[in-house]
Amino acid sequence: KQPGNGVAISEPVFTASLMENDAYDRIGDEPPNYEETSFSGGTTSNGNGTGNGEHRAVRPSVVSAFGHDTLDRVPNIDFYRNAGSVSGNRAVRPSLQELHDVFQKVSVCVSSSPLQPPLHTSVYRPVSVHQISVTNTVEDREGSDGTPSDDVESVIPLDNKDGTVRFGWIKGVLVRCMLNIWGVMLFIRLSWVFGQAGWGLGIVVIALSCVVTTVTGLSMSAICTNGVVRGGGAYYLISRSLGPEFGGSIGLIFAFANAVAVAMYVVGFAETVVDLLKENNAIMIDELNDIRIIGCISVVLLLGISVAGMEWEAKAQIGLLIILLVAIVNVFVGTGIPASTDKKSKGFFNYDAKIFMENLPPDFRDGETFFSVFAIFFPAATGILAGANISGDLKDPQDALPKGTLLAILITGVTYLGVALCVSATVVRDATGNINDTIATGMDMFCNGTNTAACEQGWNFSSCDLHIQYNNTKMEHSLQHNKITRHTHTVMTMVSGFGPLITAGTFSATLSSALASLVSAPKVFQALCKDNIYTALKFFAKGHGKNNEPIRGYVLTFIIAVAFIIIADLNVIAPIISNFFLASYALINFSCFHASYAKSPGWRPAYRYYNMWLSLFGAVLCCGVMFVINWWAALLTYAIEIFLYVYVTVKKPNVNWGSSTQAVTFVSAVNNALSLTGVEDHVKNFRPQCMVLTGAPKNRPALLDLAHCFTKNYGLCLTCEVFVGPRTETLTDVNAGMEKNQMWLNKKKRKAFYAAVACDSFRQGTENLILCVITCCHSLTADTAGVQSYVGVLHDAFDFEYGTVVLRMNQGLDISHIIKAQGEYTHTHAYTHTHTHQCIKQKQSEYFRLVALTTPQSPQVVVVNERLVSTSTQFQRKQGKGTIDVWWMFDDGGLTLLLPYILTTRKKFKDCKMRIFIAGQPGRVEQDRMKSLLEKFRIKYADIHVIDDITQNPNSNSWKMFEDMIEPFRLHEGSKSTTLAEALRKDNPWKISDAELDTFEEKTNLQVRLNELLQENSRAANLIIVSMPIARLGSVSDHLYMAWLDILTKNLPPTMLIRGNHKSVLTFYS
């Protein structure tokens, strides 16, 4: 190295360029341009050639894992990130074309300019130095500094260096859900519900409510663990599952429902305060206006807490939770305190079995029924989406939402049940409140009727008639139901140890619910506006501050809440709001069912405790409850939702979230197309099917318009383009035009497909468009033309960026000769259909002997054919317990991992477990990295094995087998004179030359060594999946490439070579 003059190569070396982004290291395929790795122990050098001692932590380059030059990348999570989600940290894997195209040699000039990155040199084996250009290796967002942001897609949670507030599952989900579910129903209407229904049916009411919320919670858990969850709560879950049409319609009404719910809860709080003012003769103007004044003041204070930030809002929620917990404990404590005479006159006694049994049967009054009582109670069980609504502010929504929501449902359900049963065991239904209504001692023998328990306690409540203790002052519906009316003292105040704590609990329940709704509405609305479903609402998408707070959404929610507070009579709108919430629950359940029903490979929820039919039952149950609560409100909800659905469908927002609706549409299209193949065309159903040679569709619009007049929306129209010229020159245009031209057709509302081919002549291209070409597979033992044709098909697949799968079975796949022999045998021996059937069943051994006789080989061919027939039906049989071994060597977009996963979801392979094999360095780092990646993809596996000795040379026996395999196809020009060698190359250009073997010695060693490792580790596997090696056009001869594939899969169980098209087929986004 010469200081000041860059790098002078005085002997064969390779250069390693330090990248700015260590998520993606750019390495050449043949050219030895490598990144310096953490294993080299070298230091960087500055522009003058002097080391500065700075160490760079860079991912080990592929040469460390495989021992040869390659542009291929090992699997890495950065290849699967969305461009807009991680600031400067999304890596782009090399494309299939970059791996496969003809290698271009260019001169390398190493400059000492300070504008170029510093170079580090190390001695390596003699190779020529080339250069590969890999574009778009990293996509940065505008203003990115190249460092990871606080994105929720990160493998490891990032430090909150910017002060962004993120909540765990307790503070973010559990606390919020419990506060929302523990509404004023607990203190005001619960005793009335059990008074009407008795504790027998009362338990049914609570249980049925919990069934609805639990099923919804299970469905939500499945959806939110099927990928990364962003902000938006119910809207985000539904829109990413069912698409923008369902999500856009429910998102708007859900946000509106939360905004109006703020007014509901605040009015409930204001009415409680006004009651206290009335008791103390402190009314300011009149009761109605006092409610408005107190309500407006309260919502302003709540808005201040919300705008101050999520941290302040969370602290307020914790304080309200403490008050609420104290109030609940106060109820339980009060039931154990000996009752005073005043409390006994009002019907409260300590625990008594006779009181408990007297309250068992229902006693419906004032026209109430089980369903009307259930309709009043059920809204108290809602609030399970309080945590989901702030999903964007959670540290790990996938973990927090299932855990926090389901635990909140359990705790609150047990609390409701415990409080209700305690009250049922201590309070009688009817009481006069008169302390003089006592019975003389010894007169309890005359007790009978409905007040037996009180009579035996020495109290005569027979004059109560229809006075209902559990409803001292009638209230039409509960606060949680959003119907708020005036109320005074309740049973809970009497039962509690300290009455004012119940009032404090009521304040806490109303304010906490109002605060949660005030935060939820803007968050959901902001997520909806960000997706630009309704373009007119884009204004509200902007966030402010470190937490991206929706300040504009807060203001809008405040205006809506104040408007409904001023109305101060919410009894009409309340059932509509309740139905809006239930509609959200119904769609969450249906989303889970629909995604499961579509059986899309992308549906891989980490949460396994759900059932698609249970989710469907939950959806139907939610719809039923909507009608139970209020039939006209349910119909109005459906009407609004349908209107918004149609609106979004007509507007067709430019989004694609991979919804289950798309998956079902695809399945339906395939099934419909297949059903047509079994139906003979009839003249009555004739429709024009036009192949229109338009070139690019926009180039000949008149021709396209005329064809469109024929097919309109009911016939098949193919617009075709032929690119004439060398395929290497036209291939880029073909691939670039596919999506662009199809999008143009869609934009012009022309229901047509675009297809393109690249050929040497227009006529040949047109023939290719018309004909369906079927290509057969060949082995290395086939003739030269057969091998070239077979490898040519693989090269074509790579050129057109198709994912490619090759299946290798030792016994072979072709049974055409057996089928032919079977036909000859049947024709010779079978005279009737019945006799044919019996002959084939009873003389199968004779049939195989016939095959042996008709084949010019030894009698051992009978055994071979028997094995071949058995092998041909191998995948028709159920696979026993075993493994599917996946050797995921290179990152091809995930197809190598996705296909075996799909197999494990099929009945025939359900008993097989996946084992993952990767190349890497010794230690736990590579294993932990792959474990994290698989968990992100929600793919179950049995083991992860890191192969750290893949770079060792194969043993002599394996190498001898490979040499014997290629011997008939070798040129052996090295041992001959120059003139003779040139003549041999000219006469046999397809043969493998000695120079080629020397050039690709390391890659050849890798294939032979991989076969040894496969024999060692996967010999007993049911199926082996291996990343398919790629040979560059013009660099590797067809026979050498076939030899690689042959030796790689030789003497193994059924083996699939897979190479995706290097476009992601896996994602960890929802």
Automatic annotation (TrEMBL):
Belongs to the SLC12A transporter family. It comes from Oncorhynchus tshawytscha (Chinook salmon). It catalyses: K(+)(out) + 2 chloride(out) + Na(+)(out) = K(+)(in) + 2 chloride(in) + Na(+)(in). One of its GO terms (cellular component) is apical plasma membrane. Residues 57-108 form the Amino acid permease N-terminal domain. The chain crosses the membrane at residues 173-194, 200-229, 250-270, 290-308, 320-339, 370-392, 404-428, 554-574, 580-598, 610-633. GO terms for biological process: cell volume homeostasis; chloride ion homeostasis; potassium ion homeostasis; potassium ion import across plasma membrane; sodium ion homeostasis. InterPro entries: AA-permease/SLC12A_dom, AA_permease_N, SLC12_C, SLC12A1/SLC12A2, SLC12A_fam. One of its GO terms (molecular function) is sodium:potassium:chloride symporter activity. This is Solute carrier family 12 member 1. The keyword Glycoprotein applies. The gene is SLC12A1. PANTHER family: SOLUTE CARRIER FAMILY 12 MEMBER 1, SOLUTE CARRIER FAMILY 12, CATION COTRANSPORTERS. It is a multi-pass membrane protein. Keywords: Cell membrane, Chloride, Glycoprotein, Ion transport, Membrane, Phosphoprotein, Potassium, Potassium transport, Sodium, Sodium transport, Symport, Transmembrane, Transmembrane helix, Transport. Pfam families: AA_permease, AA_permease_N, SLC12. Residues 700-770, 782-844, 865-1070 form the SLC12A transporter C-terminal domain. Residues 24-56 are annotated as: Disordered. It is found in: Cell membrane. Residues 172-690 form the Amino acid permease/ SLC12A domain.
